Amino acid sequence: MVGYTIRDYGKLMNPFDKYETQSIALIGDLSILSVIHQPEDFPHRENQINTMVASLSGLIKGFSATNLLLYGKTGTGKTSVAKYVTGMLEEKIGDKVTTCYVNCQTYDSPYSILVNLSKCIPGVSNIPTSGWTLDRIYSELADQIKSIERTIILVLDEIDKLVEKNGDDSLYVILKLMVEDTGSRGSIIGITNDSSFYEKLDPRIKSRMSRESIMFTPYNAEELKDILYPRVANVLSPQSYDEAAISLCAAIGAREHGDARKAIDLMRISIEMAMRDNSNKVSVNHVYNARDTLEVDIIRETVKTQPTHSKLVLFSVILSGERHPNSATTGEVSGLYADLCREIGIQPLTSRRVSDYISELEDLGMINTTVKSLGRYGRTRYIKITGRENDIKHFILEDQELEPLKNIKGTRQFRLDEHI
DNA sequence: ACTCCACAGGAAAATTGGGGTA
DNA sequence: TACCCCAATTTTCCTGTGGAGT
């Protein structure tokens, strides 16, 4: 077996040599093709930018701001455009405006949103992350915002998550603070991918929320190419990639509801793969491989960030599926889950909670469920793993707490053993 | 037509835990 | 340190439901 050096024509080669002589040479930073990169050019988003700028332009003349709602699927540029426009506004009148960006998926209660808001505002004293009453934070913030000579723009990304979790009232509280109790010093830009979000709101919120909503339509494959080309051109020389590779990334992104993020991620990973292969060109095969890698990465990340009980429920779904293909039901998954909990010595949650976890796992796309009625034999959800169960199982077992489950098979034997 | 299973999923109560206050 | 307040999580309790069996 060869070690870390390779003997070639009688002389030792350093394994790093091949990276030195690599055929694909990057002419720019690969991070241009990453999610973190905030672009300065937005092909096919001119209308949305113009509308936003027009709505916010009043601030330059000292008028109060309008609230905005941005709609669109993931990867249609809502967040980037919002950050770009507010950034430009701050560049213009940074002494009069402060933007605060909060993702409501991460900070999903009015409490945590207000705490975050307080952190953005210059000169506001620290508010603890818990302990104070909402009322106290509220009046403290209202006073402080009133006392400074600035307009505060609060960008609420995934605003639907806030309402979904806490109800209409949570949004009402924030709106009232920003719009009324601060003397019109505040403005809210809501971002959501739920096109019926506005319709579902309480009328008293509707009237305060949105004077203007801006739609971010999905990109088609041609538009995605326009997004990809300039970025790729900054990273690779023209002879280092097949045009077909870019077209394929665009096509895959377009198929995924016009998702630019997906197309860009795919392109980056394809390049990384081509470099690893030491190929001289990024080809469609690299894109196909990248798509697989990306899929598995997403699954790993999703599984890894689940709480222990959710992982156990997911594991039970897989085991149930192994026992009876096509027929895992809520009751069965719930029972198996309780067994697994006992196996690793933790207290199982109630089946009601398990039922919620099942719904959450479905929202994450890890499983599919269909409600079926079996007449006399009740009504239940049929649960199926969406695929790649081996990968998922592997990622679940990466959790040290769940290691004892390594040897459990989805056999009837396991449950019989438990009940003896 | 009626019953009744095995849940779905809404609402409210109970528990947990961080942080403030005296 | 003991106690209070609050948000988040989980449990308890509940009503609703589609269709096979009677």
Descriptive account of the structure:
The chain is α/β, with parallel strands linked by helices and 420 residues long. The chain folds into three domains: 5-37 and 219-303, Helicase, Ruva Protein, domain 3; 46-216, P-loop containing nucleotide triphosphate hydrolases (Rossmann fold), CATH 3.40.50; 306-419, Arc Repressor Mutant, subunit A (Orthogonal Bundle), CATH 1.10.10.10. 50% of the residues lie in helices and 13% in strands. The protein has 17 helices and ten strands. The chain has helices at residues 17-20, 46-56, 78-93, 110-120, 134-147, 159-166, 168-180, 203-209, 221-235, 243-255, 260-277, 284-304, 308-323, 330-344, 351-363, 389-397, 412-419; strands spanning 6-8, 11-13, 68-72, 97-103, 151-157, 186-192, 212-216, 328-329, 367-373, 379-385. The strands form three sheets. Strands 4-5-6-3-7 form a five-stranded parallel β-sheet, with helices on both faces. Strands 8-10-9 form a three-stranded antiparallel β-sheet. A hairpin with a 2-residue loop joins strand 1 (6-8) and strand 2 (11-13). Helix 10 (243-255) packs antiparallel against helix 11 (260-277) and helix 10 packs parallel to helix 12 (284-304). The longest helix is centred in the last third of the chain and has 21 residues, at 284-304. Residues 1-10 and 411-420 have low confidence and may be disordered. The structure holds a DNA duplex (22 and 22 nucleotides).
